[in-house]
Task: structure prediction
Amino acid sequence: MRSQKKLANPTTKIRPMSQSEFEVWLPHCVKEYANDKARTMQISIDQALKLSEQSFAEGLPEGLDTANNFLFTILTDNDDIVGTIWFNISTTWDITSAFIYDLEIAPAHRRKGHAQNALRLIEHEAKKHGATKLALHVFAFNHGATELYKKLGYQTTDISMAKPL
Result:
């Protein structure tokens, strides 16, 4: 029997995102993704916002009801909302994978173990849907997230690089 690793904050839990939470999360997430894209692609915020809106329209065409997409609210044991996480399940080359599109912990709740615990909880959710692999993308400037993912056993699979001219 495999031993369970002790969680940094054992009170973290997740539940499916409600429609009202989704309506707040979506515009916030679109804006945050646009900010990250503008920074990494060195494009205007207007261009990045159009790109972000298009990405979310394609990724979640039916909102919360989009097939194979799972959006969760991250909470403490007191049901205080501390963040959100979204993943998609897909099968390619006979491998069913879960891909985490978004993980965000509210600034006041960061560095308390919530992201780490949510990722472990999502592993169980992904397995329930047949996933044998869990993947994600992280922007290179997000060093804290990169270190967390490495700590949890994620490995670099691709590296994209750019140089401003």
